[in-house]
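Same chain as my last thread, 246 residues:
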Amino acid sequence: ISPRVEEELREMGFEVNRISALDRYHTAADVARKLWGPQETVVITNGDDIGYALIAQRWALELESPILLAREEELPEATENVLKYYIKPRKVILVGKFSKEVISSIKGLGIKVETKKVGERIPPREMEEERRFSMEFFRKIVYPSSLVISFLLGALVYKHHYRIREVLKPKIRIPMLVLTSDERRIVEEIIRSGGEIKQEEISQRTGFSRSKVSRIISELEERGVITRERVGKTYILRLARELVEG
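reply #2:
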C-alpha cells in the first residue's frame, strides 16, 4: 500500500498504523502477533498462490481466526515463531498444497493439523451470512438503484421522443412582420442561441423587465410561435414555427 493511500486515510480522519516486514510471510506473522492473542484455531494458506488465500480468508472469517502464510515445501521461521510463542493454537487448518515436511513441522509444535481441499463446502453459518448479505445488498442497493435508473431512462426516452416529435412536426412559416418589435427582439435572441434559450437570459440580453418578458412570451406561446418547457426553476424557450423575413 503506497504512502499516498496512507496519507489519504489520515486526511479522512482515520488513525493509520502500518504493519510491514521483510516479506508477506513476516508481515502476516506480525499482523497475527500484534492484533491477535492466543487462539484455539489458526488458518494457514500457501503464500505463493493468491487463489488459496481467497479461500482461506473465508475460513478465517467463519472461525474468527488469524491467517498465517507458509510455503509449499517450508514452514517459514516467522510463521513457526508466532505459532509457538504468541498464538499457541490447538489446531491449524491448512488451505492449499503443502508437503509432508510442512505438516510434520506443525505437528511437531504439538498442534493438530486439518487440511481443506479447494472447492470444499463453506461452513453453513457462513453460507447463511453470505446469503443474508446478498439479500440485504439487493434490497438496499440494487433494487432502489434499479428504480432510479428506470425512472431516468423513462425521462430520457420521453424527452427524446418529445424533441423528435418537435423536429418532425411540419413547420409553419410565419412572417417576421406580424411580430411586434419587442416580440421580434425576443425571437431573435432565441435564434442567436441556436433555437432555444433560458427565459431568465432574455431579460439580461434585452434589458426588458421580467414581467414584460413573461407577458410577451405568454403571448408568443399562445399564438404558437414558441414553446416553453419547465426545467428545474426556469423555463426553456424554443421556436415552434419557422420565421421568415417579409
